């Protein structure tokens, strides 16, 4: 059905449908009203309650797609004028959805708590369900009750974000809804939805950047605006925090990239709190990914920022960050292989705003330059001194045990235990390889054993020993488990990396390598002095090399210039191709957006058409069901047959009527059978009954008569006694009233006299008023009669005057007609009898026939085409229309034309007898200077042509000018 025009009627009708338990119909009514074109002119004061009620019904029925379409339509209506109205609707939607989720959660919890019997065993159904499914009862309850509403709430957030995106007027509201969506994911631990939400926000940002470059955009999101960019930055920082709380480290890293992209585009300085959260989150991400180098670099950036604002930093904050910074640097392995992939390292360095890839040495130098030892905790400072300044493998355990005991008790340092232990083990084994050639395995295990949580098993220590030799290539070992010994083999090549390691004693291989290098240098210096040919050959070779270099210099220069020119041409061509690709991509994006918009509009039209068809189908079905139900209720009310009201889907109205008729026929047949049986035995049985009852009726009649007589006597006695009692009581009352009768009569006489005096006074006043009213009414009636008589006299005089004028006008018209008829007769007599040759003489009247002797009785050919002449027999009509003719001339003030269509004959201004000559052209004024004065002339009385239908049509037809003949 079409939407109701009045908003009040829409709401009233929707409430009626809801009260009739038809919320779907009410929702459809409100939905059609919102999408209707009529609502564009409705004030927001009336439209907003409709939309709010629409949102309530959509939430109750969980219609996410319908509410999305409604919000899109409402956005188009209110965004240009009233953003707060849209915000109120959005808040209403999200609040209602949140309440539904909360109620569902409470209901699920109540179902779990309200168990019928806590001591009862599980039912067979529960046992079977627990066998085939790993879910608990509470999980299944949550999935049945809570999950549908969680899904609806998530769809509501997505729909609202899709409605609010790409509009500069809705940026603040968009940011608020994004924050609520983040809190939804965090509150209900919806990690999958959080990933989708992050992807959705990235798509929105990308589309906003693309659409801002397109022309003719209404309120586009301007990413160059500092306030807009700050809103996006705040949103991404909050996204980063939620990702860390949900421990979605991959999504957190992608959020860091989003933040860095916005930071590079921002022209406004970023808040220190946001940057601190940024670097701290990066440090946590790198710690989870075991990237110790960039973990320390992130703490370095964080420490640098806090160090420069240390005077305003909270107490203890600088010590905490400095301790983290130095401890993370100490956890970087000596042989760091995390910077093998250069592109990845440069990418991570860019995220940290570093100009180069960090190293352990650079980070340590940065820490010392910023006086980090001045602010760190004492145990961290002592750890630095032991590992970096006073490292000794044999004294390492003794020095580190008290430090590890303190560090192991701090919960915040637990993530640094394993990387720090690996660094200590690597340094220990490296130094032992420089001190010992062969040592006992038990001694190494004893030196590498530390208190918890830094303790390792014997197997783990051996594993670290072997893995360290394989990873760093700084030493080679051979373990003899039978003898319980470890042999450090000599390394013949410089394959190890001694970065960060102190060399306590040079090995024999190192000494041999140094001596061989010195011997080679000495031999190269002595050889030219021993053999002169070596010197001359070296000089000639040098000269040849110089000459060849000079000859090839020009060629190389020319090749370089040609390559440079070619590179410039290729660069220009590549730039041109890039511009063409960008233009093509922009055009493709514009076409795609236009196609998407067209597809979206077509989709909306198709959906609207489908909804309309579905609505009509539902209405028809509802009407049929209602008729069917009413018929079934009527049948049940009559009691003819019993129709099951729950199974009416498979029964139509015709079937119900046929069932009713069949049942009535069966009942009628049964009734006729019973009546036939009764009629057969009625006569004899009834006669026997009455014969037996006759004696009983006589005895009963006598008994009833005696009872009635006794009752009558008793009633009579009671009436007499009550009458005597009343008479005695009335006698007593009469005696009492007789004593006051005189005073009462006297009082009533006074009252009556006063009332009569008042009556006479009021009657005299009313008589006087009535006489005055009668006199006034009489005068008014006389005046009205005089006015009516005067009006009647004036009307009679006016009618008489108009009748005289009409008679005079008709008389003049008759005279003019007689004159015109005489003129036509005279012309007919004066014209030649024979028909003129059409080729020799042309007439402006075309093929019109000349009037003969009887021309007065025939209509005269008119130069006005097919216009019919006025009948002479009707004096009331006039050839001049409503114009009043002048008595002296029927032509008015018109002057004759110098040129005549009748040749060179000049008509005389007067006819026979001095009377003015009649003209068949009425009072039309001919135009001078034209060969045909009747070309543009119109008939004098075209309106009266219909009244001359009885007159024959002239045979000449329409007028044709000479050029057309």
Low-confidence stretches: 113-122, 132-136, 336-340, 491-505, 833-958
Q: How many individual β-strands?
A: 3
Report the sheet-strand fraction.
under 5%
Q: Give the overall form.
A: elongated
Mean pLDDT: 76
CATH-derived topology of the domain at 386-522:
Serine Threonine Protein Phosphatase 5, Tetratricopeptide repeat
Q: First CA to last CA: what distance? A: 66 Å
Helix-and-strand structural type: mainly alpha
Helix content: 55-70%
The H-and-E topology, N to C, reads as HHHHHHHHHHHHHHHHHHHEHHEEHHHH
Radius of gyration: 60 Å
Looking at the chains present, what oligomeric state does this protein adopt?
A: single chain
Number of helices: 25
Strand order of the largest sheet: 1-3-2
Q: What's the architecture of the domain at 386-522, going by CATH?
A: Alpha Horseshoe
CATH class of the domain at 386-522: Mainly Alpha
Main beta-sheet strand count, sense and barrel state: 3 strands, antiparallel
Outline of the structure:
Residues 798-830 have a biased composition (Basic and acidic residues). By secondary structure, the chain is an all-alpha fold. It has helices spanning 7-19, 23-35, 44-61, 64-78, 83-113, 124-132, 137-164, 171-187, 191-211, 226-245, 249-265, 272-288, 292-308, 317-330, 342-351, 360-369, 378-389, 396-409, 417-435, 441-447, 458-472, 508-530, 532-638, 653-738, 741-830, and strands at residues 438-440, 476-480, 485-489.
How would the blueprint of this fold be written?
Layout: H1 7-19, H2 23-35, H3 44-61, H4 64-78, H5 83-113, H6 124-132, H7 137-164, H8 171-187, H9 191-211, H10 226-245, H11 249-265, H12 272-288, H13 292-308, H14 317-330, H15 342-351, H16 360-369, H17 378-389, H18 396-409, H19 417-435, E1 438-440, H20 441-447, H21 458-472, E2 476-480, E3 485-489, H22 508-530, H23 532-638, H24 653-738, H25 741-830
Antiparallel strand pairs: 1-3, 2-3
